[in-house]
Write a structure and sequence with these properties.
- This protein is α+β, with helices and mostly antiparallel strands.
- The protein has helices at residues 24-34, 42-51, 101-115, and strands spanning 15-18, 60-64, 70-79, 84-92, 120-121.
- α3 (101-115) links the parallel β4 and β5 (120-121).
- α1 crosses α2 (42-51).
- The longest helix is centred in the C-terminal third of the chain and has 15 residues, at 101-115.
- It is globular, with a radius of gyration of 14 Å.
- The chain starts with 14 loop residues before the first strand and ends with a strand.
Length: 122
Amino acid sequence: MQERVPQHPLPPGYKIGTASAGDGQRMAELLNAAFSRTSHNAAEWKNFATLSPSFRSDLQVVVIAPDDSFAATAGFTMHEHESFAVVEPVCTHPAHANHGLAQAALSEGLHRVQRLGIAKAH
């Protein structure tokens, strides 16, 4: 990841943000819609965000839609000692597809891990 990651603009009304433990319902709705599931829920996200030793809210990049829902996400788990990040999940809510939102979230996350000195992302 030594090369410069390009910025990807968002459509009007969308903005980049981060997901914290309190965003469980919005994250569950995004993941369920994007992956055609019903298994994700707010408690699951809160558990991950509060109990996972590798969770960093600043690396859970989301694209927030004009209605304040989560339209896309790219989550990064940083492994400092090995100097790499794992990227997962990356998805877009079907209602917001084909606007480059996941690409914008991914680009933003890559910029963030680069600034933290991480050399690779998988």
